[in-house]
């Protein structure tokens, strides 16, 4: 199965899936401070994994390591069994795409051109002829078709985030890494982004999403990985991980977990002292 | 919890894609850009003919064209009627105009390329001190009378100086994959200051003839351009332009920033290195014999971007043609604005480019990007 937005074949082809993404014993130090400590994480085809945790827990760092931006000080990341750092940038770009937390653009390209940039790994290949179609489909899927001719730097934060998502979708890779894709979005677009991620996973893709919203993580992810102080504190199904004891321990905040439609929803509980204040 | 599924079908049904894919404007835009390039080329040709015919000895455009065509074996237009017309054209005017074309194309495309590499619309070889760095190296060679490579000595030194300065500025002004406007401008001030101090020392230390050569070099002038010089510079610039065009698409991606560019498959380090070398080749090629000619690399790419957007596949060739056009006209002004005087070309371009740079700074500050 392929999550391809277009039907195409081949191993190194748009939307080709089957790659496992695996971090083994990853240690990262930044500025002398350990940011990730002995992190193991394996994500297989068809899985949507949410990375959650408090600020500074190492979520974005872990995503950078998984993306190949950051070479771990110890341990390694394997993509389809191959060490990530041995893959040339272009070959890697055909197999994994990354949505950064915030994106800036040096020049005033129109949104559609920015989305088209996602197609660059397929330039000068036979798949190049699908560019127009892939861009159009991605624009529609991220609900930014009406912004196509607008200059990217003049878009709002949420519109930019969705345009970036469209760029990632246009890249059409089996492994998709999203760093807080919902941070700037309204309620409806938050849901639609996660629905898109879900669909990519259902079609056989590997999808890793950094999320702050435990509700979204509980509602959409197959697995929730909780990071705390650079370590994996828990890794499992949402209903196993998002339990009051664990969330309270990690976030230092009393919570209640209610179930909506068979999915856990985490709600902070106000303390008596706060009630009075 | 009910999930909102906005456009679920779009991902699964390629058939529906065809309807949204056709962007009728895209094809028309490409056609319009092709026409714009042809238009620029024709304007350049007209400027060349005009510039070659203008001066103390006036040659009408038809005779200029006639003389050009005669050389390639086509005799349809009249030859210059003045007894010295043909000689003047071929020994004085044409080499000078040819040098203006080559240098203008090189400077403008180097500017466009540099702005792409720095991801910053204010990067320009002269503003960030690359021209000054090349000047110091060239002045050193002139001052010491070095002839290690014959007539190539000065351009070679300018090339090395330009390359070293470009790399230096690049390393000094980059931080986390991007260049802040303030950092870039301040780096330029620092590099220019040091280079000017070096030039001042060389001027002080040189003998009279070397001093004169250095002075004219730094003022920027096409006076006395010879075919031999054009023959040295043109291949450098031609190769540089071809290399620049080959980098056009990856340069577009670099606008995303280093990290995101890498995510879509750009080998950022290699692209950057190649582009910086190409910038140095183009800049050094231009300044080697013309001296420091500022702001062409800033003004031209900006005008092109304002009209046709930031895509490098159009920006680079259009900037090359526009830069050539601008420098041919500027040089025409330099030698005709005041009778019997050859104004420094660099002075003229700075006179126009300085206020333009100021306007751009104000614009960048007021725009969405702020100072960064």
Explain how this protein is built.
- The complex is a heterodimer of chains A (277) and B (372).
- Helix content of chain A is 31%, strand content 26%.
- Chain A has 277 residues and is of the alpha/beta class.
- The longest helix of chain A has 16 residues, at 187-202.
- Chain A is globular, with a radius of gyration of 19 Å.
- Mean pLDDT of chain A is 90; it is low at 1-11.
- With 372 residues, chain B is mainly alpha-helical.
- Chain B has 16 helices and no strands.
- Chain B is globular.
- The model of chain B is unreliable at 1-22 and 368-372 (pLDDT under 50).
- Chains A and B meet through helix 2, helix 3, helix 4, helix 5 and helix 6 of A and helix 1, helix 2, helix 11 and helix 12 of B.
For the record, the count of structural domains of chain A works out to 1
CATH class of chain B: Mainly Alpha
User: Roughly what percent helix of chain A?
Assistant: 25-40%
Mean pLDDT figure of chain B: 84
Q: Provide the gyration radius of chain A in Å.
A: 19 Å
Largest sheet of chain B: none
CATH hierarchy, class of chain A: Alpha Beta
Features:
heterodimer, A: alpha/beta, Rossmann fold, 6-stranded mixed sheet, 10 helices, 26% strand, B: 372 residues, mainly alpha, ABC transporter involved in vitamin B12 uptake, BtuC, 0% strand, disordered N terminus
């Amino acid at each position: 199965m392929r999550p391809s937005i277009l039907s195409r074949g081949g191993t190194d082809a748009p939307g080709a899936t089957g790659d496992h993404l695996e971090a083994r014993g990853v240690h990262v130090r930044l500025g002398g401070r350990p940011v990730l400590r002995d992190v193991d994480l394996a994500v297989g085809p068809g899985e949507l994994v949410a990375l959650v945790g408090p600020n500074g827990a190492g979520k974005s760092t872990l995503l950078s390591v998984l993306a190949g931006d950051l070479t771990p000080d110890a341990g390694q990341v394997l993509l389809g069994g191959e060490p990530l750092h041995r893959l040339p940038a272009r070959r890697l770009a055909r197999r994994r795409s990354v949505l950064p937390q915030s994106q800036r653009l040096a020049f005033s390209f129109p949104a559609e051109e920015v989305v088209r940039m996602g197609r660059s790994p397929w330039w000068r290949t036979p798949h190049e002829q699908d560019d127009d179609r892939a861009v159009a489909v991605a624009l529609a899927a991220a609900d930014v078709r009406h912004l196509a001719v607008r200059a990217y730097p003049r878009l709002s934060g949420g519109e930019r985030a969705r345009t970036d998502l469209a760029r990632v979708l246009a890249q059409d890779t089996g492994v998709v890494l999203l760093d807080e894709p919902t941070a700037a979005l309204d309620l409806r677009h938050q849901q639609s982004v996660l629905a898109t991620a879900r669909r990519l996973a259902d079609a056989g893709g590997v999808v890793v999403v950094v999320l702050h919203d435990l509700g979204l993580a509980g509602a959409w992810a197959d697995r929730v990985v909780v990071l705390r102080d650079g370590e994996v504190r828990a890794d499992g199904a949402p209903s196993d991980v998002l339990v009051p004891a664990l969330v309270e321990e990690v976030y230092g905040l009393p919570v209640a977990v209610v179930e909506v439609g068979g999915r856990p929803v985490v709600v902070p509980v106000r303390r008596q002292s706060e009630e009075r204040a | 919890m009910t999930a909102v599924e906005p456009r679920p079908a779009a991902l699964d049904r390629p058939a529906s894609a065809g309807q949204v894919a056709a962007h009728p404007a895209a094809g028309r835009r490409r056609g319009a850009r092709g026409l714009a390039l042809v238009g620029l080329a024709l304007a350049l040709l007209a400027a060349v003919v005009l510039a070659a015919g203008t001066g103390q000895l006036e040659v009408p455009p038809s005779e200029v064209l006639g003389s050009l065509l005669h050389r390639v074996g086509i005799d349809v237009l009249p030859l210059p009627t003045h007894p010295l017309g043909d000689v003047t054209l071929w020994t004085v005017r044409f080499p000078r105009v040819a040098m203006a074309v080559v240098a203008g194309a090189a400077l403008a495309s180097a500017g466009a390329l540099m702005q792409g590499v720095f991801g910053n619309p204010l990067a320009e070889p002269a503003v960030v001190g690359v021209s000054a760095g090349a000047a110091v190296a060239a002045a050193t060679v002139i001052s010491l009378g070095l002839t290690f490579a014959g007539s190539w000595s000065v351009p070679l030194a300018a090339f090395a100086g330009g390359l070293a300065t470009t790399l230096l500025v690049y390393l000094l002004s980059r931080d986390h994959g991007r260049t802040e406007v303030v950092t870039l401008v301040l780096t330029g001030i620092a590099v220019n200051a040091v280079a000017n101090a070096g030039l001042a020392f060389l001027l002080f230390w040189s003998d009279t003839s070397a001093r004169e050569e250095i002075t004219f070099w730094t003022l920027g002038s096409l006076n006395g351009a010879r075919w031999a010089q054009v023959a040295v510079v043109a291949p450098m610039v031609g190769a540089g332009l071809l290399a620049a065009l080959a980098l056009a698409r990856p340069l577009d991606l670099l606008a995303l920033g280093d990290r995101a560019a890498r995510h879509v498959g750009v080998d950022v380090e290699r692209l950057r290195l190649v582009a910086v070398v190409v910038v140095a080749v183009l800049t050094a090629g231009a300044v080697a014999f013309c001296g420091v000619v500022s702001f062409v690399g800033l003004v031209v790419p900006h005008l092109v971007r304002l009209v046709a957007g930031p895509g490098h596949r159009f920006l680079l060739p259009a900037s090359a043609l526009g830069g050539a056009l601008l420098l041919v006209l500027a040089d025409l002004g330099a030698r005709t604005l005041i009778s019997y005087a050859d104004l420094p070309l660099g002075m003229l371009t700075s006179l126009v480019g300085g206020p333009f740079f100021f306007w751009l700074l104000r614009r960048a500050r007021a725009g969405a990007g702020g100072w960064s």
